[in-house]
Design brief:
Layout lengths: L1 H12 L2 H16 L9 E5 L6 H26 L21 H28 L5 E5 L7 H30 L4 H14 L6 H21 L3 H24 L1 H4 L2
Parallel strand pairs: 1-2
Helix pairs in contact: 1-2, 1-5, 2-6, 3-5, 4-7, 4-8, 5-6, 5-8, 6-7
Amino acid sequence: MTRTRWEIVVVLLLSYGMSALYGLVGIADRLTRTQPLSQQTATLNRPLATQELFDLLYQLLGVVSGLAPVALVLWLVWRNSAPRFAAIGLGWQKGKRNLGHELSMGVVFAAAIGIPGIGVYLAARALNLGVTVVPTALDTHWWTVPVLILWALRAGIGEEVIVVGYLFDRFKQLGWSPWVIIASAALLRGTYHLYQGFGGFIGNIAMGLVFGALYVWKGRLLPLIVAHVIIDTVAFVGYPLALLWFPGVFAP
């Protein structure tokens, strides 16, 4: 079990555990500023270079580097017989799973989580508990939308594979009860979203609790990945339209 614990530590330090540490330091930094949280801004997707070609290359490198810990986790949970990733709720045995059903579940979960999430975000800003989140500040190029979708895929795949699939499997091996696992993973999810302020922290804990409960219930990871990717894609790609239609609501 000691080896499992150290494996968990290494995986988290290479991924969302380190992001959580950055989140804690970041919120402490924001709270020491003279500006209230509601007047501060967090920009998620921004240009990484002044020249278009190099900006694109840096964006793609960022996506790939973010998926590297996922590759590590998949290697760690790989089984010698199919389904290879059954330990984290991925893969199907012939005739037992329906891909279309899991995709449709993901769409339903996205609506159930994403729509209330907008309300939580706006309420947090009104109560000075959250910063203004700018989902994208990328310049408009032919590749802007595809790259934003890639960033959404990175977030959805990375968070759900590591924070749900991997951690739930390893914590179960350590003998943790399901609800302790759900609460711990949800707290981690909230902590690495502290860059959004306390509204993002609370909202993502709620999302983590719901996703964790669904995972324990269904034992399937793909619907959670699909839901997360849809939520982030709508936020990233739809932000310019939201800013145009509702400038008083979403503008920094």
